[in-house]
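Pasting as-is:
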Amino acid sequence: MYGVSAVHIREYQNWLAAWDKARTWEQVTLSHTMLHAIEELGEVSKLVQMFEGYRTPSSDDLEQLRAELALELSDLQVMLFKIAYLCGIDMEEAMQRGQQKADARFPDLAASAADRSVYWERYCAYLQRAGLTTCGTETP
């Protein structure tokens, strides 16, 4: 068995496919796997809301909350990688293509701060229009 830190993306995906196959879980339909992924995303969402203070945390211990989030992110990752292998997609290649897309879309590092400021201004304007805050252009 590989240690997670030593596993490359493709190796992880191959391990998951073999692990599922040994349990016949690769026979779970793609659509049901998608439903499981959405369920896991909901768990991630709930914990993120706890981090931001929107929901009461399940624990006052930030490290415990972080550990819960880590496990839910891992569960979500399992479902995403399963969707990929069920569709014949190599996630290592897909992630490399995603990196190239991001680099091509946002090549100018100097513009990043300005892009973020524009985002924050639009977000504050939205909140003001909705009557939710009086925030200005200051950043949190």
